[in-house]
Specification:
A hairpin with a 5-residue loop joins strand 2 (about 275-280) and strand 3. It is elongated and about 125 Å long. Helix 8 runs antiparallel to helix 9 (about 165-180) and helix 8 packs parallel to helix 10 (about 185-230). The protein is α/β, with parallel strands linked by helices. The strands form two sheets. Strands 2, 3, 4, 5, 6, 8 and 9 form a seven-stranded mixed beta sheet that branches. Strands 1-7 form a two-stranded parallel ribbon. It is built from 14 helices and nine strands. One of its GO terms (molecular function) is Hsp90 protein binding.
Length: about 400
């Protein structure tokens, strides 16, 4: 009887082995992708997937549910999330680390030291992502929970350095050094914060002194313009207005110039950025724009002394060498007529070449627009000059 059982057993095993040899095991690893398949086994995974789908990774989802079992004590759950966050942090997956540390803090466990570590670790992850304000807030929270937590104090100091708040960075460093006087990172950070704080204070003093000096100079400049009775016209906000809006803008600007002067109209719109200035001798120097409508050309004098006349500059500008655009060689000083425009009425006022700039600027119809007096230059008696002046009111400066 025993012999018969043994034979039956042997026969069954034999049949099983024969079947195994003929038919491969379903789901077995293949030689060409066994490493890839091996990495899908949770125990042997090198890195966890970004998203754990129960359908794709059922074994891993099962393990995760065990790890995050809500029936465990809050301290144990928080510690699990802390470890998970640390693993993500080591892999430089800072966003996922932040999520893990946040989940740990949500457990509201009674272990203040563990909560301080969660805050500090989350502060580190935020710091690496450049979220300095969030990092600093976590450092503050960690310090409240554990005032002698050195890493939290170091992180708070580093955040303050990023904010360029060097005084507060020094305070965080001092708190840390009272706990660990020989900490090299805190010592280096304190030295750097102290150096930058002194430099910032020095720059602030210089800026304050410069601001005071500039205000004094601008006050003297405005006083000189007021004394001379020169009227400033503020620049229009936009050049794309209708004719009615343009006229209204001129009226407002003129009224403002006559009612009360300020320095808003002193900003030159020219590419040079030149502005009027008062020299040490008390003489004003203006940026002046020359317009040549016949050729659609301009000239710019960045510092035209108020005591100089136009002939002084024109003699130099149209001396032996005439500009290339003057193909007819007509622009000699003795052939030229100069005008300034009344921006309110669009009237033209002829200027004598030997008249000083100051006398023109003091004319009751002259308004300095955008800080730059502008002068129209025409060739006397030319066909273009006659056509340009036709239909316009022209006055000769007396």
């Amino acid at each position: 009887m025993a012999s018969q059982v043994q034979d039956d057993s042997d026969d069954g095993m034999g049949d099983f082995m024969d079947k195994f040899r003929k038919q491969k095991y379903e789901g077995a690893f293949k030689e060409d992708n066994w490493e890839e398949e091996f990495d899908k086994v949770p125990m042997f995974m090198k890195t966890a997937p970004e998203e754990i789908d129960p359908k794709t990774h059922p074994d891993l989802a099962c393990l995760q549910s065990i790890i995050h079992d809500d029936d465990r004590p809050p301290e144990e759950q928080a510690r699990t999330f802390k470890d998970e966050g640390n693993d993500y942090f080591k892999e430089k997956k800072y966003k996922r680390a932040i999520l893990s540390y946040t989940e740990g803090l949500k457990k509201k466990c009674c272990d203040s030291e563990l909560n301080a570590i969660l805050h500090t670790n989350r502060a580190a992850a935020h710091f690496h992502l450049g979220n300095m304000r969030s990092s600093f807030n976590d450092a503050v929270a960690a310090k409240k929970l554990k005032p002698d937590h050195l890493k939290a104090l170091l992180r708070g100091a580093q955040c303050c350095m990023e904010f360029r708040n060097y005084g507060e960075a020094l305070q965080w460093c001092e708190e840390g050094l009272r706990i660990q006087p020989a900490d090299r990172k805190l010592l280096d950070l304190r030295a750097s914060a102290d150096k930058l704080k002194r430099a910032a204070e020095r720059d602030a003093r210089k800026a304050k002194a410069k601001g005071k000096k500039d205000r004094t100079k601008r006050g003297a400049l405005l006083g000189a313009i007021r004394e001379r009775g020169i009227k400033l016209l503020k620049p229009e906000r936009s050049s794309k207005h209708s004719s009615d809006s343009e006229e209204e803008g001129r009226d407002r600007g003129t009224a403002a110039a006559m009612a009360g002067m300020n320095l808003d109209g002193l900003g030159s719109q020219e590419a040079t950025g030149a502005t009027v200035f008062l020299d040490e001798q008390g003489t004003l120097h203006w940026p002046v724009l020359f317009l040549y409508p016949e050729h659609r050309q301009t000239d710019f004098i960045s510092a035209f002394s108020e005591s100089a006349c136009f002939l002084d500059h024109l003699t130099v500008m149209f001396g032996e060498e005439l500009p290339s655009w003057d193909t007819d060689r007509k622009y000699h000083p003795q052939n030229l007529q100069l005008y300034f425009e009344n921006f309110k009425t669009e009237e033209l006022h002829q200027v004598d070449l030997k008249t000083p700039l100051l006398k023109i600027l003091q004319h009751d119809r002259c308004f300095v627009k955008s800080g730059t007096p502008s002068i129209i230059i025409l060739v006397k008696g030319s066909a273009f000059c006659k056509e340009f002046l036709s239909g316009k009111k022209v006055y000769r400066l007396k």
